[in-house]
Fold this sequence. Notes:
DNA binding (chains A, B); 3 domains; about 15% strand; Aspartate Aminotransferase, domain 2; Arc Repressor Mutant, subunit A
Amino acid sequence: MDYLYQRWAAHYLSAIVSGTLKVGERMPSLRELMRLHGISLSTALQLCRQLETDGYLEAKPRSGYFVRQRMRIKPVTEPRLEIDQAQYVGIHARVSDFIARGRQQAIQHNFSVARCSPDLYPGEALKNAAIRAIKQNPDLFVSAVPNKGHPAFRAVLAKRAMRMGVLMSPDEVLITHGCIEALNLALRAVAQPGDTIAVESPTFYGLLQVLESLGLRAIEIPTSPQTGISIEALELACQTYNNIKAVVVVPHLQNPLGSIMPEAHKDRLVALCEAQAIPLIEDDTYSELINDDIPLRALKARDQTGNVIYCASLHKILAPGMRLGWMSGGRWQARIEMLKYAQTRDNEAWSQIAAAEYMGSSAYDRHLRKLRSTLKTQRERTAEAIARYFPVGTRLNVPDGGLALWVELPEQLSSRRVFDAALRRGILIAPGLMFSNSNRFEHFIRINCGWPFSPDIDRALQSLGHLIHEISSLNTPHPA
Amino acid sequence: MDYLYQRWAAHYLSAIVSGTLKVGERMPSLRELMRLHGISLSTALQLCRQLETDGYLEAKPRSGYFVRQRMRIKPVTEPRLEIDQAQYVGIHARVSDFIARGRQQAIQHNFSVARCSPDLYPGEALKNAAIRAIKQNPDLFVSAVPNKGHPAFRAVLAKRAMRMGVLMSPDEVLITHGCIEALNLALRAVAQPGDTIAVESPTFYGLLQVLESLGLRAIEIPTSPQTGISIEALELACQTYNNIKAVVVVPHLQNPLGSIMPEAHKDRLVALCEAQAIPLIEDDTYSELINDDIPLRALKARDQTGNVIYCASLHKILAPGMRLGWMSGGRWQARIEMLKYAQTRDNEAWSQIAAAEYMGSSAYDRHLRKLRSTLKTQRERTAEAIARYFPVGTRLNVPDGGLALWVELPEQLSSRRVFDAALRRGILIAPGLMFSNSNRFEHFIRINCGWPFSPDIDRALQSLGHLIHEISSLNTPHPA
């Protein structure tokens, strides 16, 4: 619906974006807006608030609305269409080194995680739901746990899956210990040690570590920060290698890129895997964090033959402390259920009951809307600080959701050196080396935006920018 | 301390055991006992109650104490010292079949599980501990979970391990999703698909299923119902096969045999595995269910070099609904921690905090003593019913603890036929075929004693005995 305030907000947005209204310039006052455009006070206020929410204006008390510094930074480079050989993953040693060194130091600012502050989640409501769960089910801890998951939780998940175009019955939903267990089970169901799995490049090191622990080889497929995994490259890989046993992708808010796969792209991906008879494993951990209230359709929504294994969890969107994930395994469901039973039996019931109650209430969608909005602000503030403090030549995209930024440093810079220098100042970042078997992303870093932006965080990013400048100038040859 | 009533109880016990006092015969009345032996009323009463508790007398209201039918049944046959070839495990199909058929029928009596009635566990206390845990840690569900386990829980487990002669620091305790995850991790740490693992024979099918799911081969080592795994046979196996990558044993209240490994036997086992450089995986799920208040020393207590991987859980002893297990991996600890992290990350904190609080209180040992006593009674009543109702030639041991009986039927009987016939009458038993890759235990069944004995259970066992008689007489050729 096209409200009046939205039309005027769009008008002023153009002015800001085109530079007609400059950064730091004061917006017309509310009274002036009313007079200039013949609108009500309410409309004038709504238009300013919308632009403020979207990050274009900032309100200064008793002064008015001012145009904010917007990030004027180039997007991350598209990847080259080249594919390494498939190789066994050696990520654990590499990552352990970074993690171990991170623990030896006192850390003031941890930008390396992909998490949110606990305050962003409805802790009080979940606590109360959990207490109700025990009181209503007093034998919870001394009774056998429900097989494959608690019925109420499976039902809620099946219902919410409909919003993503996925039609699954509660009986097809298997509850797991987080999405990581779901990925383990999916891979164990379709592949044996020595097999090759196609993954996005870059990808989150948790996935690479799973591959390593299962003795699987990874073939890294170039992935666009805009559109996700390259279908052409994947097709090429399938032709080149005949033992690709699965493809694992994060179509929505890919970690670390933040890309959201366009709908046509998803169609092509599902069709390709179907044609190649290669199982497609979908990690949908982040989709509820996409800005748009309208959920996008999952890969699983296109699955006609059970070739897509859908995995997700509550870890980032609701309850990192509950360790609740789920999956629907398509034609491998029976095997996956057997492996789950053999590996960890069934999940305990109490957290499922509490989560089911909360997720079935209207509070859940309200929480998600608020979380998206909060993360949006935090991402934008972080991006602006990076634009302000990092050297010229730094590139980044601001994703349409999620809790991290993937930052491309000027190419000659080593994120390992940045990691070391930052560590000495009590700042932890996630160096690009952690997101691939290769060194292709050595000049990238991932910065967490999960905590509310603050002067402290601003100073830390300033510090980070400063040390990157130092390293950069050390790299640059001095003029004779 | 030698109380007067105990001396007289021993006196009457001899009379009963020798048959001087016959089954069904009435004990002297309290007044007669006082007069005969010059003892007080209190002493007379205590002596009768002691014999009643030990199962030799039953009190009939307003009649007095009567000598009970005691099981007069031969112990289970010792195994022959023969070793099959190592083979891939095919237990899942076999067991699934039994499980699936069990689900298709309405079941009145389920003797097939190895579980206790929820009433045998302190549900109320655990519930309250859990509520306290949330109230004291309101951010539990929205905060990152503690790495490797909650400190309080790890500390309690390390402390209680001391009672079994095991010295481990809390830092060496890794919390898992039940003992089954611990076994998975232990096997993944020391073996690769295609490797051979030595297991007891018979053993619980859960273990066989883990082996199958990991692509491991099992070599089944004859196991005595009295002394546990045969050291001679294990030695022979080690000499015959050079790719045995681990030995998995349940030294205390082995499932299904109920054997308790003598101390000298444990010494030999640990020494043998050490000498052969074969990791020894100890499943200690049941040791707290041993009758004796004095805990026996674990295999791990003898571990000098980190060759023993200790695994246990709260599943049978305290809280089947909590899914809490733990392990200490000896020299494989780092690899096990890595595999755990890659497989399921860390366990949620809530149940750990509640369990730690309860287990650190005096209520826990009181609970265990009561549980042992209750199970003892239930085992003995079940054993008596079996002795009364099953055909001559039936053999069983009554273990010194635990919640099941391993019953050897006359050799020509097929437990599969017994399973089928029982199922038709709404009774589920666990046929011996589920406890081995071989058919060696086809004429065995396992009977659960986890529920309080009742007239209903007595009738079900009578029904079971009856149908076994029928099958038996069908087998026996009729005289011409």
